[in-house]
Amino acid sequence: MKISAKLAFFTLVSTLAYLALAVFGLGGLAAFFSHLPLVVIALATLVMAIVSLFSEGNLSSGVREDRANRWVLPVFGVLGLLSGYLPAYTDRIDFWTFGGEGVRWLGALLFIGGGALRMWPVFVLGKRFSGLVAIQPGHRLVTDGIYRTLRNPSYLGLLINGVGWALAFRSGVGLLLVALMLIPLIARIRSEEALLHAQFGSEYEAYCAHSWRLIPGIY
Q: Which residue spans traverse the membrane (predicted)?
């Protein structure tokens, strides 16, 4: 697979910029790298960014798209920027924080685990994985493997990843931002499921009957 130089450059710059928000929020490089769990998170973020370059995920509108759902993209963007900075900042000023290094390590583990769960489906779906709510050419319904009992594993991974990031900074504000993320996320899930139902009909209904939407055993 040939990796676009422009995509690689954009991915690297945006990843470093996101980490820079946290470094700035915490008060600088010395403060950030004085916590080993945060060093682990920084390295994991860079590794996941590099790994993502080898996936076939895209922003294609495919053959059929629910354009009405595009409003969630800027909302995700704003919440993402706030999450990059505010948890670190509240950690620095000790506002609504809790725990110590143990909480940071728990956060680092959840961040890595959530990131892996977030990216795994991207590789499973390949070109069918789009940042837009869209049906891709040759789209078929995947109901085995990681999708056997869970219809949106990547979104669950995103939430776990976000919780991990918040805990790494011991931040109650960070957890609140993850909770707010549920609003556009659930709206996006509903749009995707409506589109899949329209595309696959009874096949999708049968799949929904024996699988969970986001959290196994709960939702």
A: 7-32, 38-59, 71-90, 102-120, 158-187
Does residue 2 have a pLDDT over 80? no
How many structural domains comprise the chain? 1
* CA-derived radius of gyration, the chain: 18
Residue 47 lies inside a defined structural domain of this protein = yes
Token readout for 144 is 């085995």
Q: What percent of the chain has pLDDT over 90?
A: 91
Q: How far apart are CA 158 and CA 189, in angstroms?
A: 13
Give the per-residue pLDDT at 3: 76
The tokens for 189 are: 């899930």
For residues 192 and 155, is the Cβ–Cβ distance under 8 A?
Answer: no
Q: Print the domain residue range for 13.
A: 5-209
Sign, Cα dihedral of 151, 157, 158, 163: positive
CA distance 6 to 120: 23
Token pair recorded at residue 133: 């709510």
Q: What is the largest CA-CA distance in the chain?
A: 57
Distance between alpha carbon 173 and the CA centroid of its chain, in Å? 18
Q: Which of 81, 132, 102 is nearest to 36 (CA)?
A: 102
Question: Where is pLDDT greater, at 2 or 123?
Answer: 123
Cα 197 off chain centre by: 24
Q: Determine the 3-state secondary structure of 97 from DSSP.
A: strand
What CA–CA distances, in Å, run from 20 to 13, 23, 88?
10, 5, 11
Mean pLDDT value across the chain: 95
